[in-house]
Design brief:
Layout lengths: L7 H6 L2 H4 L6 H17 L25 H8 L4 E5 L2 E2 L4 E2 L9 H4 L27 H8 L15 E6 H17 L3 E2 L11 E9 L5 E8 L2 E6 L1 H7 L12 E10 L6 E2 L5 E2 L8 E10 L8 E2 H9 L4 H8 L4 E4 L2 E3 L8 E7 L7 E6 L9 E3 L2 E3 L10 E5 L7 E7 L11 E7 L1
Length: 426
Amino acid sequence: KNINVIDIQSYLKGVVPNEMPISFGLEALKAQAVAARNYAINAKMSTNYDLVDTTAAQVYNGANSYRDISNKAVDETRSIYALYNEKPIMAQYFSTSAGITDDWDDVFGDGKPSNNHPYLKARFDKPNQKPITSEADVKKFLTSTTTGIDTNSPKFRWSVEFERSELENVLHTTLQQQSKAGLVSPKYDGDIKLEGLKEIKPIKRTQSGKITELEIVAKSGTYTVKKELGIRRVLKKNGAMLPNATFFVETEGEEKLSSEEPEKETTGLIKLFDSIDFEKYPKTFKIVGGGFGHGVGMSQFGAYNLSKMGKKYPEILNHYYTDIRISTYPITVLYNDYNIHYKTDFFFDKNSYETAYLYVDNRKGANEFPFKINDYDFSDTKAVALNRVFKINITQYLKEGGNLIDFAPLTRENKGKYIIYRVELQ
């Protein structure tokens, strides 16, 4: 297996144009660049490498895929991250929202509130929207074309239709596959072929209407499928899983099935069995849905449409990620014997931000920590060192474009102590 060792800026230039169409424009691409940078710094897929170059992580196609506008997006967000509690968030993203994004807990967790990803909460495209709580609400939501900002996506609304026998054959295969993944109860081993499909019934939905637990009712048995990805993989059409698990099911037509046909006697008279099954079964199942992808975090079509409304990339990120800070990566400054400085080279875009603050965490009590901002020397820090955690407005020292924060290592008398600094953009 070949391993490519590469700096993060070059890596992102090979990712951004492959994860988002460059036609989406600069601000949407900047939001994608920050999300991808966050994703990359959180990833660790092996002891030997951090990321793969496929959709298992982020699609990376190397320098051959570089484009000027996506390169610009990466360069003009250099060293910029979305932070929560001083740490880069796991910035999940997906193609298209149906109008409401989802909590991480509901889609990837067990549906119970947790503090695992507090920045990945349900977000509503429209200010007057409310969580979807009934099947009637789901139908009204998914038959409307004005409930979101992703209306120009080809997957904003979609439908898939099956003949009953076709869907029974699909389920015979997919239920076995998802049973092996532990997502079907009771397990379906295929020994008794699924037949007489009667109903596909949502059991549990998220705030956006996404199904996270589904019941498949057939004459041959009833099965529960869990997790949105398991549900999408069970209801495959022509080998492709559903775009999303936000859907409702319509059935059309009915026909009578009987497991036992009347038997003719040799006399030519018909002998009727006592228990002939004349139950009615739908002829077709139509799945009507909205959105494309898992629905957690940033919608890429949403980023595109927000940028068309004039939103800058920080506003786009704040729309999809809850209570984040746009900031450089927190750097820990220590004492060292080699006079190695601790530096942050970042891009300041005056069209996107009004103010920049230098945050310093000195709870370990270093008595000084000289630093520079570009050509400005802050060598006397003994007065501010008395403060344990503080911020300084550094906007006046910054220029449009690249800027450098340079901290000298702590002095020998501060050996064993450290400070942490970052630049927050507002």
